[in-house]
Amino acid sequence: MNKANLIYVLTIAMWSSLAVLSISVSHLDPLLSVGLVLLIASLPSWPKWRCWRLSPGHWLAGLIGMFGYHVLLFDAFGRSPAVNVNLVQYLWPLFIVVASPLFSGKRLNWGHSTGALLGFSAVVLCLGGQQVDWHPSHLFGYVEAVIAASFWAYYSLYNSSKADMPVAAVGGFCLVAGLMALGSYGLTQPQLALPQLSGSEWLSILGLGLGPMGLAFYTWDYCMRHGDPRVLGAASYLTPVLSMLLIVAVFPEHELSLGQMVALALVILGASLGPWVAKRQSAKPQSTTLEVSPSSGGR
């Protein structure tokens, strides 16, 4: 396991804690909580603010990922059933796998595409036991979730193709996106007043900004540029599965279902399938090459 894969394991672990940490601030306005969290996430890169001097293309991709993804996703959660929105937005790992040849030039084999589909099937299994309602009135929220998923996939793949972009640039994206979110929050309030947050709410926001919506953004950026996007996309389906397992571990009223255990197995299989097929394909020509030695002794 190389350095990128080890850091990826840390990223998935942090993202898996997102649901648990978000429970105590779920009653706050999403624009407020997202804005505060992203501002905290930007703090580690402030000493390297010179790294924020990027081209307009870099900034566009960064704000599409940080601001566009989060605003669309949280608005979708407000318009449509959360279970369905969560299911739809987890198309982003599939989008990363399918679109990775456009950015990295690496071809897909049947293992990569099949593995991504197995991962999405795992998400369906995880959420299948909950109330699902695909009423037409919720269509706009689902469209927002699809666009949000494509935004995050584009942001991830764009960064993966820019080897010269410093990781500290992620902090600049978080800072501007956080200010945009807080500005949008202020514009949507009839009377602008600073909310009174409790100590536990501030701790949750701090935890989110330091972990799943903070350090995880930096480590994800590193992984996408030093790992294989085809493999990382398929393995990203570990996030919702492990998140469900963590909720079961923290909140005793939730029970682990057979579907969730099968989902975990599907993700592990899907993430391993692409590299296994690639290894088999690279070994095949060597095993089938016929070497003919020259005859000796006049025979």
Written account of the structure:
- This protein is mostly helical and 299 residues long.
- Helices cover 73% and strands 0% of the residues.
- The chain is built from 13 helices and no strands.
- Helix 3 crosses helix 10 (199-226) and helix 4 (56-79) packs antiparallel against helix 8 (139-160).
Judged by helices, strands and strand pairing, the structural class is: mainly alpha
H/E element sequence = HHHHHHHHHHHHH
Distance between the termini: 51 Å
Return the average pLDDT rounded to an integer: 82
Q: How many DSSP H or I helices?
A: 13
By DSSP, the count of extended strands is 0
Helix content: over 70%
| Percentage beta strand | under 5%
Overall domain count? 1
Describe the main β-sheet briefly.
Answer: none
Tell me, what's the shape?
Answer: globular
Which features does this protein show?
mainly alpha; 73% helix; 299 residues; 13 helices; globular
